[in-house]
Write a structure and sequence with these properties.
The chain has about 425 residues and is α/β, with parallel strands linked by helices. It folds into two domains: about 25-245, Uncharacterised protein PF07075, DUF1343 (Rossmann fold); about 255-410, Aspartate Aminotransferase, domain 1, CATH 3.90.1150. The chain is built from 14 helices and eleven strands. A seven-stranded mixed beta sheet has the order 3-4-2-1-5-6-7. A four-stranded antiparallel beta sheet has the order 8-9-11-10. Strand 1, helix 3 and strand 2 (about 70-75) form a beta-alpha-beta unit. Helix 5 crosses helix 6. It is globular. The two termini are about 45 Å apart.
Amino acid sequence: MIKKICQFCLSLSFSIGLLQANSIQLGIDVLEESGFRAIAGKRVGLLTHPAGLNRRGESSIDVLRRAHNVRLVALFGPEHGIYGNEKANVPVDDRIDSRTGLPVYSLYGKYRKPTAKMLLGLDALVIDLQDVGVRSYTYVSCMRYAMEACFENGVEVVILDRPNPLGGLKVDGPPLDREWRSYVGAFHVPYVHGLTIAELARIAKHTPGWMETPEHIRKNGKLTVIPMRGWRRDMLWTKTGLRWVPTSPYIPDLSAVLGYAMTGLGAQEGGFSHGIGTPYPFRFLRYKGKSPGQIKAALESKRIPGLGYRIVKTQSAAGAPLSGVYVSVTNWNRARPTELSFHMMQLAAVWSSSNPFAASKNPGLFNKHVGSTAWWNEIRQRGAQARVDVFVEQWAQQAKSFQQKAKRFWIYN
């Protein structure tokens, strides 16, 4: 009897997931349903990657190629390339796509920003990129640079919107100081920003100082947004019923998306490893010279709301046995996800023979990710005595203030 009930519950859960997926129309779905009205009769380029799929799992490349009233003439690839098979931080060359015969212009190689030659002859650049809701992820940076180039060359930008996998209500972590704006942090938002890619584009288009283009060019640039239908701000990815497609090699699933928000900064410089190369990327913590039990006890003593810890055994990519601490989310509503990273930094200063941040050889990269000069000075000067709680609370207030200002750019209320 219990087995039958469980089977029924699984069947019901699967059916509800399908209903939710069927009720959500991504930007590419809305564009197709409209008969491609926004780009009908136009020569277009497409900036996308493997996660650029419609709700049926078809590539946006194929959707646009079969549109009888649209001429797709070029592809543009972000970091990892249009097929997601390029390594992180490795430049990608331009090429001819063997599958479609179209030119593929790399925006993670010799150029990060499309050149006038790449855009020559285009009426519009369609952008269909799946973001992860965290500031230091290069796809939204790629979008901003592409928008700037298009505005400067009189090419329309068409954003096909997609869900923020962390939902649209959670904002958390330090804002980005202007001096640290870079390709790993192109927008002045909290580390967890609570916006969709199209909402970020709208803010950049309509807010002075968010783009590098002259103000008159920004104002005159043409931005068209194709919103989703059926998505709500309270939806994490698991509520959408959509299949997650890895956005990059280290983000294979939603677990890694959550982990990236929680521990992605905590392994910067300090000495923690966070599970890259294991089945639990960004969720599996280890520290040289400390047992899993010691790490677990230290983290539990921080009493971070919404998070839990358990010791797990797994293996490395090479098959070596590993033990570490798995970070779980016990209550997403209570969690301030980035808080964990800053406690990890403080613990690294406690456990090191000397403050690793004071001896950092690459503070620029650290700060481009974290974004806060004040925190850098704090952890570098005070080390084990760094006042994590003071900064976390200050950032929480700043994040709330940012969200209030950002609401006028929300597409989904």
